[in-house]
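Researcher: Structure prediction, please.
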Amino acid sequence: MYSFEFVKAASLQEAEAADGDEVVVMAGGQTLIPTLKQRLASHEKIVDLSDVKDLKGIKVSGGTVTIGAMTTHAEVAANKDVAKAIPALAALAEGIGDPAVRNRGTIGGSIANNDPAADYPAAVVGLGATVTTNKREIAGDDFFEGLFETALDGGEIVTSVSFPVPKKAAYSKFPNPASRYAIVGVFTAETKDGARVAVTGARDCVFRIGDMESALGGKWSADAVADISIGASGLNADIHASAEYRAHLVTVMAKRAVAAAN
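Model: Predicted structure follows.
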């Protein structure tokens, strides 16, 4: 890897104060470290957030589950309050990667990185969550903008994510057998504002399917989405799955998620 200055911030204020032309904050480092080791990126300064206690923790209150940005996947998966309030969110976290990844990777790092096959973006959009940063609040629908791109501005740091508790929800994914990343994952939820269907792994960014949401608004049943499909145009295609296969999987995973929702 290229040389860089390493700063271990003790507070959010210390992280914000770090300056330079090429400064990046590090959460769990599950993507950043391999990228640096392969010399695919070069940064002047790396600011580690792992000691910032204010960015950790889970709170369930007033029909909302709020998760600190530096809370690990393993902590979300094991939290009894999350499992009670939004079982689908705890199950999603349990299915991320392997134990090593779950005990190091964080929710804030995952959504800020916005890998097209990551699981958490589907939950953020599928539940209509709100992303809070050190500067503002961003609606989940507006947060993810494209391949590894988000609405975050320079120097903006995710501090927490707030998920409204749905009436019912479930997440179903077809995982890559090695990485456990979603070849296609679909998060479905019945919320106070109606049905939501969010898809990850299929395009360069998480997206919703309005036709499925409308159908589920009339009747919450796997049969309601069984005949709704999306075209293969614009979908991801790689050695793991063609665009056509991903299009097929979207409907299959949606049916499974709807059937599993509780």
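Model: The chain has twelve helices and 14 strands.
Researcher: Thanks, that helps.
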